[in-house]
Amino acid sequence: MRIGVLTSGGDSPGMNAAIRAVVRAALSNGDKVFGVSDGYRGLVEGRFKEFTRSDVSEILNRGGTILGTARLPEFKYEAVRQLAVKQLQKNDIEALICIGGDGTYAGALALHHMGIKTIGIPGTIDNDIASSDYTIGFSTALNTACDAIDKLKDTSSSHQRCSIIEVMGRHCGDLALYSGLCTGAEYIFTNETGLDKEKLLKDLKENRLAGRRHAIVVISENMTDVYQLAKEVEDYSGYECRATVLGYVQRGGTPTPEDRLLAARLGGFAVDLLKQGVSGVCVGVIDNELRSTPIEEALNMKNIPSEELHNLVQKLK
Ligand code: ADP
């Protein structure tokens, strides 16, 4: 079989490990693998390169993606996808493994309906793909966020300060919830919890009066202007307050062993499924078992925030 592999949407650490796993697993089956540059954009433009075993050497521990990634909003139009199908047919590539988030999955599903065999692999730091307990990149981003928050906590404590830290995760609060829990944050706000500003200000004032030396607030991106919030906290609570937006550092770095392991397992599994003639599904690990889910179903699954973890935050703060 001739298989294409691409990375699309936002990049995440461990995408390279997934590419490597796909290439090596496919070659070991006697298949040929073609790397597609820059996601669906490169697909439409026919930018394919046949990969040998050594083309994916020494990338396992590198962040980013050697294939590059891009956004091509026009891919939702059938006429644009038709160009991609033509490029695949011209190169006799019958199957495509698409590594990315839910937008990437939507593209893979549309190609499946046009006769291309597609499999999705979850590569995003947000952990917002409900058909897998964890997505490739989440563990590394969590490590990065925890490291930064630990450091901010040190200095917050020295200066009797409140630190507000904005982490990524627009539609899924896992990065905020997990990093906040792991660093002992007093308050965690995600799009699932919402932000009750009045209550936060009141609580912080009470904390301050009770003599607590610092407070850590972890908040998901796009909830509010954290710099403005820091000003309001400072005016109201008596704490000096600083806001830090962690931003794109969370997208980079050497993938953790957990992300490499997940990437290896899911890359190998995706190739196995193609060999069995499966298409239109995405792969994941649920309760430590490899699982495949129809992409259509996966796109409609809701991320349910862990009630257990949110309750723990309240108890441990
Ligand atoms: P992610 O995969 O990380 O969620 P995006 O949402 O930006 O990132 O999607 C990545 C790419 O997937 C888009 O630039 C576009 O090319 C393609 N895509 C997104 N949504 C669709 C859709 N509904 N139909 C077809 N292709 C899509």
UniProtKB/TrEMBL annotation:
Classification via SUPFAM superfamilies: Phosphofructokinase
Pathway(s) where this gene product acts: Carbohydrate degradation; glycolysis; D-glyceraldehyde 3-phosphate and glycerone phosphate from D-glucose: step 3/4
Modes of activity regulation: Allosterically activated by ADP and other diphosphonucleosides, and allosterically inhibited by phosphoenolpyruvate.
GO molecular function, one term: 6-phosphofructokinase activity
Keyword match Thylakoid: no
Primary location class: cytoplasm
Cofactors: Mg(2+)
InterPro entries: ATP_PFK (IPR022953), ATP_PFK_prok-type (IPR012003), PFKA_ATP_prok (IPR012828), Phosphofructokinase_dom (IPR000023), PKF_sf (IPR035966)
UniProt keyword Kinase, yes or no: yes
Keywords assigned: Allosteric enzyme, ATP-binding, Cytoplasm, Glycolysis, Kinase, Magnesium, Metal-binding, Nucleotide-binding, Transferase
Catalytic activity: beta-D-fructose 6-phosphate + ATP = beta-D-fructose 1,6-bisphosphate + ADP + H(+)
EC number(s) stated in the UniProt entry for this protein: 2.7.1.11
Binding locations of ATP: G10, R71, L72, G101, D102, G103, T104
Single Gene Ontology BP annotation: fructose 6-phosphate metabolic process
GO cellular component terms listed in the entry, alphabetical order: 6-phosphofructokinase complex
Cell location: Cytoplasm
Source species, domain of life: Bacteria
Subunit-level organization: Homotetramer.
Family (UniProt): Belongs to the phosphofructokinase type A (PFKA) family. ATP-dependent PFK group I subfamily. Prokaryotic clade 'B1' sub-subfamily.
Functional note: Catalyzes the phosphorylation of D-fructose 6-phosphate to fructose 1,6-bisphosphate by ATP, the first committing step of glycolysis.
Name the record gives this protein: ATP-dependent 6-phosphofructokinase
Source organism: Anaeroplasma bactoclasticum
